[in-house]
Amino acid sequence: QVQLVESGGGLVQAGGSLRLSCAASGRTFSDYVMGWFRQAPGKEREVVAAISRSGFITDYVDSVKGRVTISRDNTKNTVYLQMNSLKPEDTAVYYCAATLLDWGPRIRQRFEPAYWGQGTQVTVSS
After folding, report:
1. Contact at 8 Å (CB) between 99 and 112?
2. pLDDT, tens digit, 9 for 90 and up, residues 68-107
3. Which phi and psi (to 5°) does residue 88 adopt?
4. Strand positions, DSSP E, 27-91
């Protein structure tokens, strides 16, 4: 079992920044490929970013490339999502997730979470 707890969401103006954190407890954190999902009202949940077990490889959905950085600290059992130049269309509930799938091609499309966090709201005002 892995427990995931997100923090860092909030209300920010367009162009601003937020850093989300996801603290994990339970099984060995470095066993998991980690990802951040988001779900906006009326839309399907999508994978925003994923990071390999080591943290050396990352992948992003096109809409956030250049603005968002996923990172992890395996000594702190935490994964982060640094979001800059935020846009109103980034407004969503953001979830972190853990998967035991191996990293590889199309990881975002293949990402099947074994565990989810409870979500944190990000609201970007125009």
Report:
1. yes
2. 999 999 999 999 999 999 999 999 999 999 999 999 889 9
3. -55, -35
4. 33-39, 46-51, 58-60, 68-73, 78-83
Closest by CA to 51, choosing from 75, 77, 70, 25, is 70
First to last CA, the chain: 40
Best CA proximity match to 4, nearest among 99, 121, 90: 99
Token duo for residue 3: 């427990």
d(CA 90, CA 63): 9
Query: Burial code of 4-13, b = ≥16 C-beta within 10 A, e = fewer?
Result: bebebbeebe
The CB-based long-range contact list for 53-59 (8 Å cut-off, 24+ gap) reads 53/103, 54/30, 57/103, 59/107, 59/108
Residue 88 forms beta bridges with which residues? none
Mean pLDDT of the chain: 96
**H or E segment at 109?**
helix 107-110
Q: What is the C-alpha to C-alpha distance for residues 17 and 74, in angstroms, rounded to an integer? A: 24
